[in-house]
Amino acid sequence: MAPELSLAAFEGNSVMPRVRHRAVDPEGKGVPVRLLLGKVPGTAGSQEETLLASKLRQLMVDGVEVRQVAPSEVVALGASRWHVLAKKGGAFSALGGIWSGESKEQPDTRFGESWLSGALSVEATVEEAKKASNWFDGLWASSTALQAANLEPKATERVTVIEVPYQSKVAHHANPKLLLENAFAKEGGLQGLGKVTRLVYVDRYVPRSLLGLHSLEQILGALQYVSGAAAKVVCQRPELDGYGGATLRSAEQILTSSTENNLLETDSSVMQQWAVSRLKNKVSLAFSMDGYVPHRRKLLVQFAPDARYKTLKVLFDQGLDWMKRPRHAFGPVLAGPFVPGETHIVITRNDPLEKEERWK
Fold it and tell me: What pTM was estimated for this model as a whole?
């Protein structure tokens, strides 16, 4: 239980992926999971809130029960030191935190990367855990049940939300360029959007991914540009090559023979130059290696005045390489076949770009 969730709650080793695993065990050993919230994300707010609503909806589709407490109970929910409760047979357990008073900030209870930051992590005694469980049951009984349909994204002229389920059978769900072409089908695909004057793609990990760089080149290559248009990729430097360096390979060798998606510095540099060269007759592309890059992967596009839209923002939950190869697959990475991993994409049209961190 938590007053609210953050997007970070669904990342990596945070709480929500573990909650989902408890509910959807591959071996059929899932257990009932209940999530009690004070605030539920809306589907008509910022891109980040819309994405959060989409991810919470997927959790509900997977079988996690979600309820929202009454407004009068939100403060008490936030003040509780216990946030994760478990009951097996007659045994009770609870985990949470106690604010030490030494920190100037209240602990973060949103289950993200900084869950319980500023607090002392504690485990309840048996009696405390049982008492917390009974309190939770009382809140649960008086709370409002939510249905996945409550958070179903509503497509509008301004916002489109694309949900790609794990192992989706839809062909374009495993191809970022085709997925965007399909999303803009009524506009005539990516080419039909109009001419781009400036473009920024923010993704700290894209230089490390062969699939990501290949997908990025395909997407940028499908757009139209005004003369002199500039495109920038804001990212972090990939990992250094191992001791002794790496054998220099051509882009063609990497594309046709790499059996691993992960790129180290030398191969990544070659592939970056490959993308720049492939697009040089359309747009001036540059890679900017920054020390700090926001975690959210975004494509920010500004169009010429006569284009269909003024701007476009595409928020990629898992970047451009959410597709995975089956375990039995062998040979070059780009040869496939690919199976989609779960991902969510939020497209927003005509939103101002000035407030975006890496637009300026």
Answer: 0.85
